[in-house]
TrEMBL record:
Coiled-coil positions: 164-216, 417-444
Sequence ranges assigned to domain MRH in this UniProt record: 460-555
Region (Disordered): 274-305, 558-582
GO annotation, biological process: N-glycan processing
Name this protein carries in UniProt: Glucosidase 2 subunit beta
GO CC, any one term: glucosidase II complex
Keywords in alphabetical order: Coiled coil, Disulfide bond, Endoplasmic reticulum, Signal
InterPro entries according to UniProt: Gtb1-like, LDL_receptor-like_sf, LDrepeatLR_classA_rpt, Man6P_isomerase_rcpt-bd_dom_sf, MRH_dom, PRKCSH, PRKCSH_N
One Pfam family linked to the record: PRKCSH_1
Signal sequence extent: 1-19
Organism: Mortierella hygrophila
Length: 582
């Protein structure tokens, strides 16, 4: 408290009265009616600082000197600067301003009644009636929006709760049905296992018999294929001898580039053969003859086919070398070695299909089904068309294994194993679909659609906001995107932010160049339509959608019932919660 010697005592007393008493109800200036009890002197005429630090004479309140550490003794002067001044704003809404703004020569808009400039140095007329009228008009407009929005929200709630109930019922039915679906799949698997066991047992018990039958069946075909391989080897030897002679005996003084190119190609071929021979020697760990004896008839047939195919490739390569030389060599040189090679080529050419690396009229020997091994008569090879298909089948090692033996005394189109496999595949697929449907429904049932399931109505509702360069979209509870020439993911729904159910987070979007993954925060306010009203990018690749939706339109009448200290009647003291007020 400040003690000042003033000659005229009457002047001091009048000043204190002016500072302390602002209204007829004796409240100190700057104090709200709701806080009157806090500014009532005790029986000794003392005022207790609101922080409880000390007491001072009540006469020292608003004496333009800061006595209390919290500044609570100067609600109506700028002495402390840390307190708050109450503007009653009759005709509008009461408000608080910092005491540091009192008598600063500025008419603060928060105090529309002009009470912040009470020293008379600055004239601030009261404009609360005009401001209040405009505010009430705006509030009426908002109330209409809230009223209509809340009506729509109630429809959303009815839909959401009904939808959640139906989803739970569907889930219960699917989960109950899935029991029989799982049992059917398990039974089908057991049947398939039994059929496979039966097949395995048969194959093991009849192995020798079947191998003997297969041997008889394929013996003539192996012989035929072996003869073809021998014939191909003779032609291969002929071409190698021809090219060896050309390489050794051509006239090197002619420097014929076509001849040199042919010999160079032949040398490369020989080098490749040498590498192949070395690889084969390194890979052979067992006696070759013993390995061949251990091979089944089918394996020997495939080996003969492979050998024939490889030999024909070699023939085709050498045939091509000489053919190209024939087309490009210098005919004026009359090189005998060259002419000899060309003669061999011309004599062989009519029997060779250059385009397919095969002998004219020689078709692929088709390997018959094993079921045909029961037939006594000799099986003749069946011609099967284009060479490309033949070699494709050869490289896949295709040969059908008949399973008709599992059905005794009857001829059927499908084996027991095949039928069991089809049944299991079908049952397994039904089980997979059932599980998939259950998981989808569980996700929907467990998704947090807000209070009373109000947001269920908006699931997958897609909303757009168009700017000059981009179109921004969000499919609620789905994905947010930025569209231009192509779509860029800004993230998928991950969670709600806070407990108010008015902000959604979308994360895990496409990564920015040299930056984070894109993400979106969708902030919702009350509106009668579902629409995005603004899009911004507060931080790099972190987007903010401002959205209006009926889903967040509260019932204002309920708010009024639950809030007896409504802000419309008196402002809340800054730094205090409403329930802290006395």
């Amino acid at each position: 408290m400040r003690i000042t010697c003033i000659p005229i005592v009457i002047t001091l007393a009048l000043g204190l009265v002016h500072a302390n008493v602002a209204t007829d109800n004796k409240l100190p200036r700057g104090v709200a009616p709701s806080r009157a009890k806090l500014y009532t002197p005790d029986t000794k005429g003392q005022f207790a600082c609101l922080d409880g630090s000390k007491t001072i004479p009540f006469m020292a309140v608003n004496d333009d000197y800061c006595d209390c550490p919290d500044g609570s003794d100067e609600p109506g002067t700028a002495a402390c600067g840390t307190g708050y001044f109450y503007c009653s704003n009759i005709g509008h809404t009461p408000a608080y301003i910092k005491t540091s703004r009192l008598n600063d020569g500025v008419c603060d808009p928060e105090c529309c009644d002009g009470s912040d400039e009470f020293d008379g140095q600055t004239h601030c007329p009261s404009v609360c009636e005009q401001v209040g009228a405009a505010s009430r008009k705006e509030r009426e407009k908002l109330e209409k929006i809230y009223k209509e929005g809340n009506r729509i929200r109630k429809e959303y709630v009815v839909y959401g709760q009904s939808s959640k109930t139906k989803l739970k019922e569907q889930l219960d039915k699917l989960q109950a049905a899935s029991v029989s679906v799982k049992e059917a799949a398990a039974n089908a698997k057991a049947t398939l296992d039994a059929a496979n066991a039966k097949l395995k047992e048969y194959l093991e018990s009849t192995k020798l018999e079947r191998e003997a039958a297969r041997e008889r069946q394929l013996a003539p075909l192996i012989e035929q294929q072996t003869q073809r391989a021998e014939h191909a080897n003779k032609i291969k030897s002929l071409f190698r001898t021809t090219l060896d002679d050309l390489k050794e005996n051509h006239n090197k003084n002619f420097h014929d580039m076509a001849v040199k190119s042919t010999i160079s190609g032949y040398d490369e071929y020989l080098e490749e053969l040498k590498k192949q021979d070395e690889d084969e020697k390194n890979s052979e760990t067992d006696n070759k003859e013993e390995k061949e004896k251990a091979q089944s008839a089918l394996e020997r047939m495939h080996a003969a086919q492979d050998a024939t195919y490889d030999t024909k490739k070699d023939i085709g390569l050498m045939f091509g070398l000489i053919k190209e030389m024939k087309e490009k060599y210098n005919t004026e040189y009359n090189d005998e070695a060259v002419l000899k090679a060309i003669k061999v080529l011309d004599e062989f050419a009519p029997t060779w299909e250059d385009s397919s690396n095969d002998f004219v009229g020689e078709e692929f020997i088709e390997i018959p089904d094993e079921d045909a091994s029961d037939k006594k008569e000799e099986v003749k090879p069946e011609d099967k068309g284009a060479l490309g298909e033949v070699y494709n089948r050869l490289q896949k090692g295709s040969s059908k294994i008949g399973l008709g033996f599992l059905f005794k005394g009857s001829k059927v189109s499908k084996s027991e194993v095949e039928i069991a496999q089809e049944a299991y595949n079908k049952a397994s697929e039904e089980e997979r679909k059932s599980l998939e449907e259950i998981q989808k429904l569980e996700k929907k049932v467990n998704t947090d659609y807000g209070p009373d399931e109000v947001f269920a109505k908006l699931v997958d509702r897609c909303i757009e906001f168009k700017e000059i360069e981009y179109t921004y979209t969000v499919c609620l509870f789905g994905e947010a995107k930025q569209k231009s020439h192509s779509d860029t993911s800004l993230g998928t729904f991950s969670s709600w932010e806070g407990d108010n159910y008015d902000t959604q987070l979308y994360t895990g979007g496409a990564r920015c160049w040299n930056g984070p993954e894109r993400s979106v925060k969708v902030m919702m306010t009350c509106g009668t339509e579902n629409k995005i009203v603004a899009v911004s990018e507060p931080s790099k690749c972190e987007y903010l959608y401002k959205m209006e939706t009926p889903a967040v339109c509260r019932d204002l009448s309920e708010d009024a019932k639950n809030d007896s200290n409504s802000n419309l009647r008196e402002a809340v003291y800054p730094g205090k919660k409403k329930h802290d007020e006395l």
